[in-house]
Specification:
475 residues, alpha/beta, five-stranded parallel β-sheet, 16 helices, binds flavin-adenine dinucleotide
Length: 475
């Protein structure tokens, strides 16, 4: 029987494991941490009964994709839940903007810019199920829907600062800035619109759902599926070298590229090892989880009903903050992403005490404390917030990295989203998952299509491994 070892149990490692196991491969997953799930872990970080997502909270790209078509995780307990408002963006003096899954509702609230929001995101949202078949794969492939992909590329390619000029109001421009800034890129950089356009479109197609009972349910469902297929996971097994691993036909690394190169050592062709070590990481996240009594008193009312709140003010303010972190400087007013998952999934709260999961964008390797800056940013748009905090759990950048080796320097998206690395990651190659030696593959978010708990990197990498075994092409 063909045997595979997967190093790392993040959503991509587990998706690769499930895909291989379902194709008849005997799979063992080795996880360095004490629990499974990588960036999909959840736990009671602040007070008993209040469940926080330690990393991923919202899953617009996981609801419907080739991996979710391949295996139905609802059979293993995964349930999605949607907030009423997908994401909101408070501004000064109680103003703001918000995105509903219903684009018409979004447009009505955007008033003067509503028609333009609809004109851009409406056609993209209608075509998104087809478009994502192309962009959730390596870029070097024959497109299935070339015209739809080209249409998407027309909006994804420019800097966010250019695209934002189509809107006249501060509200619409800020709404787009918040979603574009998920890329951790300067908003005037080439292709800095790409992630904003993808996530913004996904909001009107699939919404931004949370996993019921916490994102840990995503990992648990994948482990359940894997075990049904005869595979298993061993935790507390940090892999340092290939020589520690049992004999296997396929070794799949759910790790950063440089870590894979270190672990594989001389087994890799030197030019590939060098390319993996040159892979660039981006800025960092400073994470604070709060237990908040009565929820956050946002002045902008739709933010009180939103799963995600982008806290950073106007387009100009967010652009300035993102510019600074990319230059290695800490902004006074950082961009903060804040999750109110409990609004979609009330089971995560204990009575009237609710989990709030927030992180600020900070420079790579930032060694300061951003807790106060995060709280000040929230307080700006929700006066009284600080008085409602019951408990907080702070994960500084060093701890972000030490709890998950893939987050090099605190980079939670496993690689800078430069135009080059958006197109080609972890290196320029028609087989980005291959490590250049038969049987060795990379499957983490450092491979296409990149970050997010959607499992598509792992699914694609497993496809590449199975194609190699059968002597066919996976593209
Ligand atoms: C604060 C935060 C918020 C986020 N928000 C979202 C969100 O809302 N939506 C979304 O889709 N994504 C979000 N993400 C990103 C998402 O979590 C990641 O992109 C995703 O988890 C990447 O999956 P992965 O399988 O590639 O790697 P990871 O999830 O990072 O998992 C890698 C696993 O491999 C293990 N490992 C590494 N090296 C070794 C080794 N040598 N030996 C054994 N095990 C090893 C690690 O311990 C880890 O468990 C967020 C991340 C963070 C940190």
């Amino acid at each position: 029987m063909t045997k595979a070892i997967v190093v790392g149990s993040g959503p991509n490692g587990l998706a690769a494991a499930v895909t291989l196991a379902r194709s008849g491969v005997e799979v063992t997953v080795l996880e360095g941490a004490g629990t499974v799930g990588g960036g999909t872990r959840s736990s009671e970080l602040t007070v008993p009964g209040v469940v926080h997502d330690e990393c991923s909270g919202f899953h617009p790209l996981a609801v419907s994709n080739a991996f979710s078509d391949f295996i139905d995780l609802s059979d293993h307990g995964l349930e999605w839940a949607w907030p009423e408002v997908q994401y909101a963006h408070p501004l000064a003096r109680g103003a703001g903007a918000a995105a509903w899954q219903d684009i018409g509702e979004t447009a009505r609230h955007l008033q003067d810019d509503g028609q333009m929001w609809k004109r851009i995101f409406g056609p993209l949202a209608n075509r998104f199920p087809d478009i994502q078949q192309d962009f959730l794969r390596p870029m070097l492939h024959v497109p299935i829907h070339p015209l739809k992909l080209a249409h998407f590329g027309g909006f994804a390619g420019p800097p966010a600062s250019w695209l934002s000029r189509v809107w006249k109001t501060e509200e619409a421009r800020a709404l787009f800035a918040g979603v574009a800034a998920h890329s951790f890129r300067p908003l005037n950089a080439l292709a800095s619109s790409a992630i904003g356009v993808a996530l913004g479109t996904a909001a009107h197609t699939y919404g931004w759902p949370v996993a019921k009972n916490g994102s840990q349910s995503i990992a648990n469902a994948m482990v359940g599926a894997l075990e049904t297929l005869g595979g298993h996971v061993e935790t507390g097994m940090r892999v340092q070298s290939l020589s520690e691993l049992p004999k296997a036909d396929i070794i799949m690394f759910d790790t950063g590229p440089a870590a894979a190169a270190r672990i594989a050592g001389d087994a890799l062709p030197p030019r590939i090892s060098r390319a993996l070590k040159r892979y660039r990481h981006g800025p960092a996240a400073f994470v604070v989880n709060f237990a908040v009594e009565g929820g956050i008193p946002w002045t902008y009312a739709p933010a009180r009903r939103a799963g995600t709140v982008h806290v950073g003010g106007s387009f100009r303010e967010i652009a300035a903050a993102e510019q600074l972190i990319n230059r290695g400087r800490m902004p006074e007013h950082p961009f903060v992403l804040l999750g109110q998952q409990y609004l979609a999934d009330p089971s995560r709260s204990a009575g009237d005490v609710h989990p709030i999961d927030a992180y600020a964008h900070v420079p790579a390797g930032f060694d300061g404390d951003a807790t106060d800056a995060i709280e000040r940013q929230i307080e700006r748009f929700a006066p009284g917030f600080r008085g409602r905090i019951i408990a907080r759990h702070v994960k500084d950048v060093a701890e972000v990295e030490s709890t998950n080796a893939n987050y090099v320097g605190g980079d939670i998206v496993t690689g800078a989203n430069s135009a080059m690395q958006l197109l080609f990651r972890p290196r320029v190659s028609a087989s980005p998952y291959s490590l250049g030696r038969p049987g060795l593959f990379l499957c983490s978010a450092a491979t296409p299509p990149g970050a997010g708990a959607h499992g598509m990197c792992g699914y694609n990498a497993a496809g590449a491994a199975l194609a190699e075994l059968s002597g066919t092409s996976s593209l």
